[in-house]
Amino acid sequence: MYGWLEETTDERWQAAMETTRCLGEKKSAEAGGYSMKNSFTKEQYLEYIQMMQEVRDIGDPEKSHAKADDILCSLLRSIGLNMIVNIYEEIDKWYA
User: Fold this and answer.
1) Number of structural domains, the chain?
2) Is 96 a domain residue?
């Protein structure tokens, strides 16, 4: 289903989860003591990769960029970073 990902999925998944774990454990002042959700599954990881690949192949940079923004905001929300997405969504966008 995911082609080239099949061979490296476990390594990429482990690296992604290690990064998430490290960020979630960071309880410093600049992080506000915030702990990220770590319930992101391997299947979700692969789904987001596939969605981004499909968007990359649309052929229209403006549409691709807008759709990629939506996918990335969804990903950030899925790991509990709602405030960042809320602020990002308040920023005026310009795609051309």
Assistant:
1) 1
2) no
Residue 78 CB contacts under 8 Å (≥ 6 apart), including other chains: 37, 40, 44
> At a CB cut-off of 8 Å and minimum separation 6, what does 37 contact?
24, 78, 79, 80
pTM here? 0.64
User: Average pLDDT in the 22-38 region?
Assistant: 53
Q: What is the pLDDT of residues 54-84, one digit of tens each?
A: 999 999 999 999 999 999 999 999 888 999 9
Considering the domain boundaries, does residue 62 fall inside one? yes
DSSP states of 20-86 as a string? HHHHHH--STTTTT--------HHHHHHHHHHHHHHHTSS-HHHHHHHHHHHHHHHHHHTT-HHHHH
Domain annotation covers residue 95: no
More confident residue, 38 or 31: 38
Unique residue bearing structure tokens 């905001």: 73
